[in-house]
Amino acid sequence: MKIGFVGLGKMGLPMMQNLSEKFEVQAFDGNPQARAAIREAQNGSTYALLDSLDELVDIDILILMLPNGRIVQDCVLPLCEREGALSKDAVVIDMSSSSPLDTLELHKKLAQTGIALLDAPVSGSVQKAKNGTLAIMVGGETSVLERVRPALEAMGTAIIPTGKAGSAHSMKTLNNYVYAAGLMAVSEALIVAEKLDLDLEKFTDVLNASSGRNVATETKVRQHMLKGGDFSGGFGLHLMAKDLGISHDLAQQLSLSPGLLGLCFQTWQSAIKTAPAQADNLEIHHHLSHTLNA
Fold it and tell me: Are 133 and 196 in a shared domain?
């Protein structure tokens, strides 16, 4: 299978590199500086790094790891119209954190051309992307999933079918909301505990041995958030704000107003107003500390 991979950011680049160890890969990123840096570091790599999407030829699987579903559409639809870019039975796999609404729109448009679409967002850190141990949720037809499973298994160890097209993107964004709520709760608890002059190491032990345990308490607090921590968990503050925005929009489309979701959405929106573009998601702790102590 010939694979086209578009979007070579922190997650996309190692995912593509793992794919290139088993498949013929044509890779592209829209940022010229990123392409130059990747080309400089290639050192005998097996993938072809392209300078334009126009160079994609006879692709069987087109994988996209881009900022949002609108950019995915802007990338995919012209390729569908250009003869020779995609093979007759090509499959498009959107691994971005796209809005399910955009995914359903793209699914409808691609169906008219005979090209199959899977939404396959990932869960895991940059390190998991490098190790090829991501969890990959997949929405779309089972038969299409089975056709591309070997490619997905080159990037992840848990391939989770979620149902119809758009279901994986829906589950991914709701999962990120649940994680954000847990991170917000533990951040506020740490701020209160510090005010009480509690031993934060011991408090972390209590959380992880008790009902307050969650992913943030287990993998972020002691590792990155206690005194002297780097507050670098490997996921962007702005990306979390985007995902919370997707969940919030979904709820509004369904005429729902979940209170905790609304609170998380507003909190992250407030945080990104003053945070630099590269801020890590764990910086929400500092934002909350500043807000609570103001």
Answer: no
Same domain for 100 and 16 = yes
Structure confidence at residue 3 as a pLDDT band (50, 70, 90): very high
Count of structural domains within the chain:
2
Are 85 and 126 members of one domain? yes
Domain span at residue 65 reads 2-163
Catalytic residue among 22, 109, 172, 202: 172
pLDDT digits (tens, 9 = 90+) for 8-45: 998 999 999 999 999 999 999 999 999 999 998 887 78
Which of 163, 195, 229 lies at the terminal end of a domain, its last residue? 163
Specify whether 130 is catalytic: no
* CA–CA distance, 73 with 93 (Å, rounded to integer): 12
